[in-house]
Amino acid sequence: AQSVSQHNHHVILSEAASLELGCNYSYGGTVNLFWYVQYPGQHLQLLLKYFSGDPLVKGIKGFEAEFIKSKFSFNLRKPSVQWSDTAEYFCAVNAQSGGYQKVTFGTGTKLQVIP
Amino acid sequence: DSGVTQTPKHLITATGQRVTLRCSPRSGDLSVYWYQQSLDQGLQFLIQYYNGEERAKGNILERFSAQQFPDLHSELNLSSLELGDSALYFCASSVAKRLGEQFFGPGTRLTVL
User: Fold this and answer.
1) Is A35 on the interface with B (CB under 8 A)?
2) Residues in chain B closer than 8 A to A49 (CB atoms)
3) pLDDT value at position B82?
4) CB atoms inside a 10 Å sphere around CB A66
5) Å from A93 to nearest chain B CA?
6) pLDDT averaged over chain A?
7) Cross-chain residue pair B42–A108, CB shorter than 8 Å
8) Average of per-residue pLDDT values in chain B
9) Which of A3, A42, A52, A87 is least surrounded by Cβ atoms within 10 Å, i.e. has the fewest?
10) Contact A43 B104 (CB under 8 A)
């Protein structure tokens, strides 16, 4: 069965600190990987995605993620966080299963950035 | 604005009642997904429809059902409501013929009293 693990449930950082949020998935086939962000009171928005090619993916607002196939990981990074990055971050995996796509989300990581 | 619309934005009802949540996908998207987001359960995938047909089921209770209509809008029906059903219900859409990202609607906040 497909699963996604986000190791950190709640992260607190000061502004300008570096961020790395872990995401591991379990699925043996071809996957597409996503990070979504949910700002307080808002709906989920796509931050970045990996389909194929360069495993280092750059997204919006200075975020990037690296797909490491051998580790089944897709960690999210940002060199210097801002207060406006306070949000909940979800890792998601799409995979083809039985003729249709199946999507699985991680449990989310709440990031709190202190000014 | 993702292009996905959901109505109503807020819904307050009593235990035992039945409600219907509505979702209109982005123009051209054939696939609709329903999710439940609550504090204790996180973001849970409920069900997916593609071009009117059910394609995948997640953690959807038997008291819940959904359908996708010929115009591709979808409705999620929640019946015999319990206090624990209080949550944000999101709809998302995607093209779905190829693997891709989902576009989320603003959600419907359901409060069961």
Assistant:
1) no
2) 101
3) 96
4) 16
5) 10
6) 91
7) yes
8) 91
9) A52
10) yes
In this predicted structure, what is the pLDDT of residue B44? 86
| Residues in chain B within 8 Å Cβ distance of A97 | 56
**CA atoms of B106 and B88, how far apart (whole Å):** 9
| B82-97 confidence digits (pLDDT tens) | 999 999 999 999 886 5
Question: Which tokens hold the place of A43?
Answer: 């709906």
Distance of alpha carbon A54 from alpha carbon A17, whole angstroms: 26
Q: Which two tokens stand for residue A68?
A: 């490491």
pLDDT in tens, A85-111: 999 999 998 887 666 667 788 989 999
Q: What is the CA radius of gyration of chain A?
A: 14
Within a 10 A sphere around the Cβ of B109, how many other Cβ atoms?
15
Closest by Cα among A72, A59, A64, A62 to A30 = A72
CA distance B76 to B93: 14
- CB contact (8 A) between residue B102 and residue A43: no
**Looking at beta carbons, which residues of chain A come within 8 Å of B45?**
103-105
